[in-house]
Amino acid sequence: MLRFLIHRSIGALVVMWAVATLVFFMLRIVPGDPIAAMLFDSSPEMAEQLKAKFGLDQPVYVQYVKWFWAVLQGDFGTSIYGSRLEVSRLIVEALPRTISLALLSFVVAIVIAIPAGLIAATRKNSKLDHSVTVFAFLGLSMPDFWLAIILIIVFAANLHWLPAIGYAPLSEGFWPWLQHLILPAIAAGTAFSAIVARMIRSSMLEVLKADYMQVARSKGLKEPFLILFHAFPNALIPVVTVMGIAFALLMTASVVVENVFVIKGLGRLLIQGILNRDYAVVQGTILVVSAIFVFVNLLVDMLYTIIDPRIRY
Amino acid sequence: MSELLSVEDLHVEFKTPEGLVRAVDGISYSVSPGEVVAVVGESGSGKSVSARAVLGLVPRPPGNIPKGRILFDGQDLLTLDDDSLRKVRGRRIAMIFQEPMTSLNPVITIGRQMTEAMVANLGYGKRQAREKAIELLRMVGISEPARRMKQYPHLLSGGMRQRVMIAMALSCEPELIIADEPTTALDVTIQAQILTLMEDLCQRLGVALVIITHNLGVVARYAHRVNVMYAGRIVEKGEAGDIYQQPRHPYTAGLLESVPRMDRSREDPILPIPGNPPDLIQMPEGCAFRPRCKYATDQCAIAAPEMQVLHRGHESACWNTDALSRGVAA
Predict the structure, then answer these.
(1) Closest Cα of chain B to A1: distance in Å?
(2) What fold does the segment set B5-92+174-274 form as a domain?
(3) Mutate to test the interface with A, among B105, B110, B172 (most CBs of A within 10 A)
């Protein structure tokens, strides 16, 4: 187990390094640079001066080595835009918002997906199954920003049930926090729930055909008991894998959704950073997002040992 | 003696894209309390399906039971609703399946799988069920039963798992156990152990046993009465000794010749039955065994033979039983 953890952690670090390096160079290949984004119309001397100030006049590989050395020491640099805030401070501010949104979207997705998947599998080819399938494809094919706008129009603008935009930290109370996140969580979680529901359905259909299900049925156990305690835990094994990977989807969804709902999370930070060619901000944010992704997948692998006793590391 | 289980003119069919498969085509057999009855046949002869039909485990659709009765203790199981049938399962009729490797749920401990039926069917408390489970596991020859209870199935060998299945089948003290090829997936050395164990326990506890198998050798040693199935029908039935000593259907005779036997000399060849079982969607006219039968006559192509009583409980569905008993091929 310990060996496995060490092994996977090293792997995780390699992945994060690769992602960060790729982003570093891709940012510099993209046309336009931060100075151009800052200054609309100015003398070349001024631009040169600014470039020197931010170290952008040096060769790319020198910039890379310097940046990499700083990151290793925990220094993500400063935003070159506006008030030159430290990137780490920006991230610390944005992170709880994105994590709140991601967690709540996850909860929304699971609460929808598990019953939907189970019903679809146990009533295969019934009207209920077909409607679950239709909703799943609707959920998957609706763009999340569009769904977000529809939700705002219906529940915020017309019904006035929930606020349209903004975020309230948990320290201001549970309800204000939740109130601001319900609509974004639905917008970001719908596609995720559709994937998971479809996965649960097909995985359950597979498990329901297994020999041990017939054995359990022959023992005189009740059908709901069979479904929940015999079939479902087995069906979860492949589903959990997909959940880990589909978590990336949740992260990308949150980028768009945060922008629609004006939540200043990592997604919004990233978009602003890209628009401003704010290299340090983009690099730092991507590094954190990839760390979250890698960590979640490691967590999924650990979860296996709980749901499947045959797996031991 | 009144019958415990009586299957009467049972038909089971399956809808498939290729057509209607008549997996079981009008079979009848009975089991008395405490008796060991065998149903023998090749793969696809309908023996497993007919066993599953007893417990209502034939999936519907695609399966369908258009005709027949399954009387258990005087009650037709085919007319019961799901809830009443569930109360028969496990509690009064238990089943042991072919594949011990896949018959236990991989993510549930042996202990929970052993006890859940007792808790659900007999209203046992957790502790009472646990004590009985440990006792049963010891009875079927599992060492350190208390430790095994906490383990998951993947830590047990095939033979051990089948022992667990037997213990599980016995746990609710059923009157009948249906064992569907209980030893097919096991090593030869384990097969005899498991069968002897089942026979011994059933005798001691007074449980009737239906063994579904393709191995006539198994039958000879353990069964009192035998039903031989071919292409969805019973072609011969009788006392195990009679059938073994003097088969009166060419198929049974062929089965016996195709099995290595210790009581025959080494020079006696093992003779396989030529050909393949018929396509159940397009059954041949007349006797289903005719294309493979060396005793076949013109009459066999015209009409399927009915079961006829030869003597004292020995029945056979063949036009040419006399030729067979004289050993004269057509």
Answers:
(1) 19
(2) Rossmann fold (3.40.50)
(3) B105
Q: At what angle do helices A232-260 and A87-122 cross, to 10 degrees?
A: 140
Could you tell me the residue ranges of all domains in chain A? Answer: 87-307
pLDDT by residue for chain B (330 residues), tens only, comes to 578 999 999 999 999 888 888 888 889 999 999 899 999 988 888 888 898 899 988 887 788 888 899 999 888 998 888 888 898 998 899 999 888 889 999 999 999 999 999 999 898 999 999 999 999 999 888 889 999 999 999 999 888 898 899 999 989 989 999 999 888 877 888 888 888 888 888 888 889 999 998 888 777 788 889 999 998 899 999 988 888 888 889 898 888 887 776 676 777 777 788 888 888 888 778 888 888 888 888 888 888 888 888 888 888 888 888 777 776 665
Q: Give the B window 81-100 contacts with A, CB below 8 Å.
A: 82, 86-91, 94-95, 97, 99
What tokens does B177 get?
């156990």
Q: Is B119 on the interface with A (CB under 8 A)?
A: no
List Cβ neighbours of B114 (8 Å cut-off, separation of 6 or more).
B129, B133, B136, B137, B149, B164, B167, B168, B171
Q: Give burial (CB, 10 Å; 0-12/13-18/19+) of A253.
A: buried
pTM of the predicted model as reported, rounded to 2 decimal places: 0.81
Which of chain A's residues have a Cβ under 8 Å away from the Cβ of B102?
210-212
- What topology does CATH give the domain A87-307? MetI-like fold (1.10.3720)
Supply φ then ψ for residue B126, to 5 degrees: -60, -45
Q: Which 8-state DSSP code applies to residue B1?
A: -
Is B87 in Cβ contact with A215 (below 8 Å)? no
CATH 3.40.50.300 range(s) for chain B read 5-92+174-274
